Amino acid sequence: MNNLLHLLFANGSFFTFVLLQIVSLYCLVSFNDAQRAIALETWSVRFGSVKSVAENARSYLDLEEQNEAQLQEIARLRELLPEATYDTERQIDSFSDDRYLQRYNYLTAHIVNRSPYRPNNTLIIDRGSKLGVRAGQGVVGTRGLIGIVDRVTGNHARVLSVLHQDIRVSAGLATGDFGTMRWGGHDSRYVTVTDLADYIEVEPGDTVFTTGYSNVFPTRMVIGFVESAEVQPGTGSQDVVVRLVNQPLVDADVFIVQDLFKEELGELNQD
Length: 271
Prior knowledge:
alpha+beta, 4 helices
């Protein structure tokens, strides 16, 4: 209390000046129509600006929730696509029983960290073993491939990007011919499909798909479009340069592909 009184006495002239200014301003606005109109207009403009900022902030928070809801809806719709199911159709004489088993689930996730750009790129997503994430599962974006899960903790997972020189993905053409997709470590816009026979006709603009043979990504997901093809002398094969349909270094919202048949197929591949 003593400190407060001391402050008031020490700065009394200043506080008196401020008080008189407030009283003068009040009298000026209250007893003059022109000044009152100006004050009301100014208050309206300032209050509108503050309200606009508040509305923008609230809209941004709502947008994040709407984005998450949209991603979950996209994941649900992906699970209804034909390539996410397994055809168990039976035909006995004239009787037809059409049934589909769910093969792939899609779990929404967000990229929370990335490695610096280099020949072997990795990223971290905010989903882990608590939600069924396992090493070897594929990760896709809204348009194309992102990578393959490498390490998993309870709440997070590390993903080897398709822009990682150790990643190999089975990729093919609409003709059914296929090879192996890999990144050369230079331009993030392009990957190369190798091991295609040199007699296969490949034209610029042809679509390159996943084949599903690796049991990581569903069949016929678009990887990109053929940029060029070059026969490798003495090998009987050609290398096809493919321009990616997405930008793996930019995508932030992703889906983890969970193959419900992976363990069963893995048992068949054991020696």
